[in-house]
């Protein structure tokens, strides 16, 4: 991204972030305040509706309380097989008389004694879902709404009050009174409830059934309000959730009629509509800030970036090898002039350095030519060994031929190999040729074995790490022995590492001898050690190449031979 765009982006972010945060926080805070205000409004409205509901239901309860204690009804229910005559009916009708009562039924303990308008039979009464609740109420009235008793689904919604009738003297159950109340009594209560447009007020029971609702469109439907669950701590409150696939503010209040809840449903968009002005103001401020940022870029940032662009173009010319100073027509007398001046001085210095590098490159080519000439000597040695081998074959001396071949391969690995890391099988081949040459010198004084699994042959390692260990074993262990010596070279896998054990059956050595061999003073060492290819040299080269975790481990004891363990990492070519 170009500098001008970065500066513009920084200005936009520095201005936009505070404005956007301010607008978002204000909008959120105002919305929450509106939610609290609306919930308080609906809570008060629900309280008022519940009070009216209690008053309306108490009218029916007072009437039924008076009726079930009348001597006529008590006498009818106490006498078995009593037949209600016309006069009794008139008395009962006068006792249970209210504009909101649609019908009622008077039952003994085993049959329907009298019904007004229309009522269910005794067998139908016993199978009602609320029959058990009526028995458990012990004479207290229970209310069953249109959405609970199935009347709304049948198209004839009624509100049912059911209660047992007890003997006035013995308090034994002698019958039941079922009163069917017109749903208009609920309509009057809910119609007067204050609410916003498009809202609704529900009367819900503990099981989630909508007993009644103001709109009349959802009576009998099943709901899943969380406050209906057992153990819900809040008795009253509000929350925001989806109702009928629309985000709504849901305010709830337990009704004084046990088992019912009053619930106010308000679409959330109606509540947040008053917050739109704050949102629009925030958007206007953001647009104004954006315009201000572009004007600032036009008249201030553009001039500053112009000088920087001149420096960038100068750098592009330097990349092409053109070192031309930057000239400016306008002197601003600020940091941009210092930038141009610094670039001109840098360009001059780079030009001088390039000239120096060209001189050094010419000298380097001259040294490389000398190195190519120096390679003639190893090739001369290889050619000479080939000639000796041919003469030995012609003369029939196979031992000389084998020795010359091994020496040639040994020299090619140690001298002609350019790369530092070689395959492990090539390193072992180098050791094999070295030991074959030494067997000509020591004749049958020692034997050897080399074991390397096929799975490890192609892992690479630093060259010339095993041969110095083997050479050390030959000169310090095998040569002083009177009997036959044996050298074992075994490579094995150890997790992510490779272990190479070089063992001999020589006389071994004690700790003092080992410290002398490891000493930095090389005056008393043999010539092969003076060349820096001994035990310490191998250990240091491995530590430098692969890290301090890798190197050699020396195990020896007088009279029990020696084992040198080389640890290297698994590295594929």
TrEMBL record:
Gene3D superfamilies listed in its UniProt record:
6.10.340.10, Histidine kinase-like ATPase, C-terminal domain
A Pfam family the protein falls into: His_kinase
Asked if the keyword Secreted belongs to this entry, the reply reads no
GO MF annotation terms: kinase activity
Q: What is this protein's name? A: histidine kinase
HAMP domain residues are 302-355
The EC number on file is: 2.7.13.3
Among PANTHER family, the record links this protein to: SENSOR HISTIDINE KINASE YPDA (PTHR34220)
- What species is given as this protein's source? Paenibacillus segetis
């Amino acid at each position: 991204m170009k500098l001008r765009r970065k500066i513009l982006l920084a200005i936009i972010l520095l201005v936009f972030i505070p404005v956007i945060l301010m607008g978002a926080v204000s909008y959120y805070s105002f919305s929450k305040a509106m939610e609290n205000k609306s919930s308080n409004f609906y809570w008060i409205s629900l309280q008022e509706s519940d009070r009216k509901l209690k008053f309306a239901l108490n009218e029916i309860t007072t009437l039924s309380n008076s009726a079930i204690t009348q001597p006529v009804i008590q006498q009818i229910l106490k006498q078995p097989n009593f037949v209600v005559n016309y006069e009794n009916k008139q008395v009962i009708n006068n006792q249970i008389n209210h504009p909101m009562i649609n019908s009622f039924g008077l039952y003994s303990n085993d049959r329907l004694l009298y019904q007004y308008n229309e009522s269910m039979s005794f067998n139908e009464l016993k199978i009602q879902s609320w029959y058990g609740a009526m028995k458990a109420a012990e004479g207290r009235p229970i209310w069953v709404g249109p959405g609970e008793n199935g009347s709304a689904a049948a198209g004839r919604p009624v509100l049912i009050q059911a209660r047992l009738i007890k003997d006035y003297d013995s308090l034994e159950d002698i019958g039941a009174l079922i009163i069917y109340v017109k749903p208009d009594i609920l309509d009057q209560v809910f119609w007067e409830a204050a609410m916003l447009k498009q809202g609704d007020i529900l009367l819900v029971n503990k099981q989630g059934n909508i007993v009644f609702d103001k709109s009349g469109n959802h009576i009998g439907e099943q709901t899943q309000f969380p406050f209906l669950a057992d153990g819900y701590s809040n008795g009253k409150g509000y929350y925001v959730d989806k109702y009928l696939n629309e985000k709504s503010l849901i305010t709830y209040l337990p009704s004084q009629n046990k088992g019912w809840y009053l619930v106010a449903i308000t679409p959330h968009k109606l509540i947040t509509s008053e917050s739109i002005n704050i949102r629009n103001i925030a958007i206007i401020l953001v647009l104004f800030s954006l315009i201000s940022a572009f004007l600032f870029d036009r008249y201030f940032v553009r001039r500053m970036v112009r000088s920087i662009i001149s420096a960038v173009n100068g750098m592009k010319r330097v990349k092409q090898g053109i070192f031309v100073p930057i000239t400016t027509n306008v002197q601003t007398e600020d940091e941009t002039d210092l930038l141009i001046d610094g670039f001109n001085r840098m360009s001059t210095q780079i030009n001088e350095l390039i000239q120096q590098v060209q001189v050094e490159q010419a000298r380097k080519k001259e040294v490389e030519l000398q190195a190519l000439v120096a390679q003639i000597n190893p090739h001369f040695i290889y050619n000479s060994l080939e000639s000796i081998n041919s003469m030995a074959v012609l003369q029939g001396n196979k031992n000389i031929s084998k020795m010359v071949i091994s020496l040639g391969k040994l020299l090619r690995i140690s001298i002609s190999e350019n790369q530092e890391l070689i395959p492990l099988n090539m390193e072992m081949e180098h050791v094999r040729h070295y030991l074959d040459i030494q067997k000509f010198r020591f004749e049958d004084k020692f034997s050897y074995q080399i074991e390397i699994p096929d799975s490890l042959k192609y892992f690479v390692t630093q060259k010339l790490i095993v041969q110095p260990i083997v050479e050390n074993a030959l000169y310090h262990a095998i040569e002083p022995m009177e009997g036959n010596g044996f050298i074992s070279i075994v490579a094995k896998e150890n997790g992510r590492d490779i272990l190479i054990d070089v063992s001999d059956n020589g006389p071994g050595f004690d700790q003092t001898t080992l410290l002398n061999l490891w000493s930095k003073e090389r005056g008393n060492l043999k010539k092969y050690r003076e060349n820096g290819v001994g035990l310490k040299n191998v250990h240091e080269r491995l530590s430098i190449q692969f890290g301090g975790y890798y190197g050699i481990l020396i195990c020896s004891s007088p009279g029990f031979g020696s084992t040198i363990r080389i640890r290297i990492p698994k590295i594929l070519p």
